[in-house]
């Protein structure tokens, strides 16, 4: 029988399952393990949104929507963005409903990239972008932000754009950030936009955590750089709807017209039932994130205080639900070895920084999308580990 096992796209052999998922699976079998690993809200989807989903099933919304998604959900998403972030997108031609932000990322990258292109990413960064860049036969260029409190400085961005020239096709921004929780201020966003407007590059702005900012209102770079920007958002984090898989792409009509082709051939369309629930989330649940955000802020403050007392150094997160902390001096700076040892000895699972790139080595990420009771227990376990090593 002919062997086809080595005839895949060669880039497939060079990518791997995310280290976040691999580590989570590795430690899941440890008895009594307490996991602060995955970025999933511990809240349930709001009741009124769930009821809307049930009604959609009962009313037989079980057929395909159009490729771009139902008109009512696209209109609701457009209004949501306008009311929240002063962005104006025509729901008929500039909004796509996707299967979560993950598909939105894939569709945007596959639509824009060609073999040999380069993509600039601030590092450390969520590991979901690089594999798709490689599958498009393009190359990621990482800009280390660790010396600037995990914020991409405009002068660093401009230097990279000049160095790599016309090969740079896109710049990816993710803020509030996974893994650092860092939020960009209006001044920082404007400064980046002033650099980017001078170069013919796409700006893929992953703003999935936009509703989870604690101190300032989220500012989208599309406010300053609309014509170049592809905004990615969704309901997974803001409305605790990870399993519903509802994401959005917002982009100028000329860009959307191309991205929808890739979206169509990847997935045809998002779940119609989920879209009907999304309408309720975006209109009646426009402020559903506020209750969750208050709890997240309390949890953040608790972890920040406890971990600082243990010697961890970190930029205090202003958004999302992650603590990204430097392992104290005197402890194993190999983040994978540190996290494995912690899990095996004290039954606490946190993500090794190396999962977010070599720039993140020596760091760990904790998700505080967990109950306060679990966080208190987690800090007790971490304290015992640190004191015994």
Give a brief rundown of this model.
With 389 residues, the protein is of the alpha/beta class.
Strands ordered across the widest β-sheet: 2-8-7-6-5-3-4
Find the count of extended strands (DSSP E, 2+ residues).
13
Strand content range? 5-15%
Our Rg estimate from Cα atoms comes to 21 Å
Estimated helix fraction: 40-55%
Biggest sheet: strands, sense, closure? 7 strands, mixed
Quick check: average pLDDT? 97
Unreliable stretches (pLDDT < 50, length at least 5) are none
Provide the succession of SSEs. HHEHHEHEHEHEHEEEHHHEEHEEEH
The gross shape turns out to be globular
Beginning-to-end CA distance, first to last residue: 55 Å
Structural class: alpha/beta
Number of helical segments with 4 or more residues: 13
Model description:
With 389 residues, this protein is α/β, with parallel strands linked by helices. Helices cover 41% and strands 14% of the residues. It has helices at residues 10-14, 19-28, 47-58, 71-85, 100-112, 130-135, 154-164, 186-196, 253-267, 272-283, 289-309, 335-346, 372-388, and strands spanning 34-35, 95-98, 118-123, 139-144, 168-174, 202-206, 229-234, 247-250, 313-314, 322-326, 348-349, 351-352, 363-367. The longest helix has 21 residues, at 289-309. The N and C termini lie far apart (55 Å). The model has no long low-confidence stretch (mean pLDDT 97).
Q: What key attributes describe this structure?
A:
four-stranded antiparallel β-sheet, EC 2.6.1.-, 389 residues, PyrdxlP-dep_Trfase, aminotransferase, transferase
List the helices and strands and how they pair.
Layout: H1 10-14, H2 19-28, E1 34-35, H3 47-58, H4 71-85, E2 95-98, H5 100-112, E3 118-123, H6 130-135, E4 139-144, H7 154-164, E5 168-174, H8 186-196, E6 202-206, E7 229-234, E8 247-250, H9 253-267, H10 272-283, H11 289-309, E9 313-314, E10 322-326, H12 335-346, E11 348-349, E12 351-352, E13 363-367, H13 372-388
Parallel strand pairs: 1-11, 3-4, 3-5, 5-6, 6-7
Antiparallel strand pairs: 2-8, 7-8, 9-10, 10-13, 12-13
Helix pairs in contact: 3-10, 4-10, 5-9, 7-8
Keywords: Aminotransferase, Pyridoxal phosphate, Transferase
Protein name: Aminotransferase
Cofactor: pyridoxal 5'-phosphate
């Amino acid at each position: 029988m002919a062997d086809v096992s080595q005839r895949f796209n060669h880039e497939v052999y060079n990518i791997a399952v995310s280290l976040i998922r691999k580590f989570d699976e590795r430690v899941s079998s440890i008895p009594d393990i307490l996991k602060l690993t995955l970025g999933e809200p511990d809240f349930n989807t709001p009741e009124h949104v769930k009821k809307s989903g049930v009604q959609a099933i009962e009313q037989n919304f079980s057929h395909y929507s159009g490729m771009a998604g139902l008109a009512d959900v696209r209109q609701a998403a457009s209004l949501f963005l306008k009311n929240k972030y002063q962005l104006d997108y025509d729901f008929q031609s500039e909004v796509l409903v996707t299967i979560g932000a993950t598909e939105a990322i894939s569709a945007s990258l596959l639509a824009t990239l060609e073999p040999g292109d380069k993509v600039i990413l601030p590092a450390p960064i969520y590991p979901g972008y690089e594999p798709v860049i490689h599958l498009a036969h393009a190359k990621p260029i990482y800009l280390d932000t660790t010396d600037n409190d995990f914020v991409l400085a405009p002068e660093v961005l401009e230097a990279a754009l000049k160095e790599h020239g016309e090969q740079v096709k896109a710049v990816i921004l993710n803020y509030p950030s996974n893994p650092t929780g860092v939020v960009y201020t209006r001044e920082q966003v404007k400064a980046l936009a002033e650099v980017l407007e001078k170069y013919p590059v796409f700006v893929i702005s992953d703003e999935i955590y936009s509703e989870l900012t604690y101190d300032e209102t989220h500012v989208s770079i599309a406010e300053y750089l609309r014509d170049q920007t592809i905004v990615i958002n969704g309901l997974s984090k803001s409305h605790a709807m990870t399993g519903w898989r509802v994401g959005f792409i917002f982009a100028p009509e000329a860009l959307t017209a191309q991205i929808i082709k890739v979206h169509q051939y990847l997935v045809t369309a998002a779940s119609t039932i989920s879209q009907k629930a999304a309408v309720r989330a975006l209109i009646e649940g426009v402020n559903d994130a506020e209750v969750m955000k208050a709890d997240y802020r309390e949890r953040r403050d608790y972890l920040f205080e406890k971990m600082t007392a243990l010697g961890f150094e970190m930029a205090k997160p202003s958004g999302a639900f992650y603590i990204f902390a430097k392992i104290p001096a005197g402890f194993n700076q190999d983040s994978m070895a540190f996290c494995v040892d912690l899990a095996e000895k004290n039954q606490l699972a946190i993500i090794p920084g190396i999962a977010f790139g070599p720039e993140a080595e020596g760091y760990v990420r904790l998700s505080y999308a967990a109950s306060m009771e679990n966080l208190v227990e987690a800090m007790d376990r971490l304290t015992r580990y640190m004191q015994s090593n």
